[in-house]
Automatic annotation (TrEMBL):
UniProt superkingdom: Bacteria
Annotated protein name in UniProt: Acetate kinase
Residues given in the record as Mg(2+) binding sites: 10, 387
Cofactor(s) the protein requires to work: Mg(2+); Mn(2+)
Upper classification of the organism: Bacteria, Bacillati, Actinomycetota, Actinomycetes, Kitasatosporales
Originating organism: Streptomyces aurantiacus JA 4570
PANTHER family: ACETATE KINASE, ACETATE KINASE-RELATED
Site (Transition state stabilizer): residue numbering on this chain: 183, 244
Length: 406
């Protein structure tokens, strides 16, 4: 295959994020974001990454995903990177929910698309937008391989003991209620990159990955395979997040409905959009929360403490699940940038072989790095995630294979 460009699309309900990569050297050629699709105030931000081109912005109504992708194609064409180029090898799509069926990245055909649609009831917020993105891209370049890379795929190796909720089995199966986990592309990439940082093969290391962005999840990875993760049927379970509550007693929901008189939709919005850090202190940006703590703000302090307490419970829990831990890896916006979060999450865990070196923790860098002192039995790492590169890598590998077989 002489063509080596991959377009990565992450389609949300009213947004499309994209990157164009050249897999000959894994370099990024362009990236951008279309926001508020379907509104009067749509915006496209395009950043060319070759030459000295500056960021460009378009504002004004973009009616739907088809119009959005056309606008993206025009911006890329203006940089000499048009989507009609023979250089484009394939398009990779982030798909949030792959259920139990999709354990690997998959070349999309009509049957695969139908299966992704069948999963809409368990991912009503995400899969419909992903499907729209796929349909639009297929219409634009029907000749190209299009690959779905699933957020859930990495977690399909979880044993039933971790994946099942302790509820009636027949009811659970009828409604496909189980723990699927999300952020899998990031957990896969970061656990592999952590093994590399330790100079070992992924098969030889056990890692706890803490993906702390606005959404946040932890995973326990044994020898390169996920054995537990903190998100469940939906991305609501687990850690305290920017706007999501994470774990709570399910009876809180009955209580809010019966005693508080809230509707199911109101509770859904409360737990997904008005809880977590924003619910606790009114801010979901860790920088702002740290600034308020430095000014002596008690509410921000408590929000931070609750966030850290939950994180510690997962570190301890996954330590026990794995039995032996070689490294803990922090990633995503908070994990990569917030040194106080890393320090507080590991504080007091010396008996478990865990420690953070204050100086190393304070260093800012885009490179994977260790922040534990030399003597620490369990290494603590900061490993920047790169979900787009991971999607492009997997898409390119499959497209090359599809090319050989055709
Ligand atoms: P997502 O992809 O889930 O939207 P990101 O991984 O981009 O989220 O993380 C976004 C979050 O990262 C922000 O809400 C903020 O809390 C945190 N963040 C970003 N930069 C910093 C920083 N320099 N210091 C502390 N926190 C940061």
């Amino acid at each position: 295959m002489s063509s080596s460009r991959i377009l990565v699309l992450n389609s949300g309900s009213s947004s499309v994020k994209y990157q164009l990569l050249d897999m000959a050297d894994s370099s990024r050629l362009a990236m951008g974001l279309v926001e508020r699709i379907g509104e009067e105030t749509s915006r496209l931000k395009h950043t060319p990454l070759t030459g000295d081109g500056a960021e460009r912005e378009r504002t004004g109504p973009i009616a739907d995903h088809e119009a959005a992708l056309k606008a993206v194609a025009e911006e890329l064409a203006a940089d000499g990177l048009g989507l009609d180029s023979p250089e484009l090898a394939a398009i990779g799509h982030r798909v949030v929910h792959g259920g139990l069926k999709f354990t690997e990245p998959t070349v999309i055909d009509d049957a695969v698309l139908a299966e992704i649609e069948r999963l809409v009831p368990v991912a009503p917020l995400h899969n419909p937008a992903n499907i729209t993105g796929i349909r639009t891209a297929r219409a634009l370049r029907p000749d190209l391989p299009q690959v779905a890379v699933f957020d859930t795929a990495f977690h399909t190796t979880m044993p039933e003991s971790a994946a099942r909720y302790a509820i009636d089995v027949a009811t659970a199966d009828e409604h496909r209620v189980r723990r699927y986990g999300f952020h899998g592309t990031s957990h896969a990439y970061v656990s592999r990159a952590t093994a590399k940082l330790l100079g070992k093969a992924p098969e030889d290391v056990n890692v706890i990955v803490l993906h702390l962005g606005n959404g946040a999840s932890a995973s326990a990875v044994r020898g390169g395979k996920c054995v537990d993760t903190s998100m469940g049927l939906t991305p609501l379970e687990g850690l305290v997040m920017g706007t999501r509550s994470g774990d709570l007693d399910p009876a809180v929901i009955f209580h809010l409905a019966r005693v508080g008189g809230l509707s199911i939709d109101e509770i859904d919005t409360l737990l997904n959009k008005k809880s977590g850090l924003i619910g606790l202190c009114g801010d979901n940006d860790m920088r702002e929360i740290r600034r308020r703590i430095d000014e002596g703000d008690e509410q921000a302090r408590l929000a931070f403490d609750i966030y850290i307490h939950r994180l510690k419970k997962y570190i301890g829990g996954y330590y026990a699940v794995l039995g032996r831990v070689d490294a803990i890896a922090f990633t995503a916006g908070v994990g990569e940038n917030a040194a106080p979060v890393r320090e507080a999450a590991v504080a007091g865990l010396e008996e478990l072989g865990l420690a953070v070196d204050g100086d190393l923790n304070g260093v800012r860098s885009d490179e994977p790095r260790l922040i534990s002192p030399e003597y620490a039995r369990v290494k603590v790492a900061v490993v920047p995630t790169d979900e787009e590169l991971e999607i492009a890598t997997q898409t390119y590998a499959l497209a090359a294979l599809a090319g050989k077989n055709s």
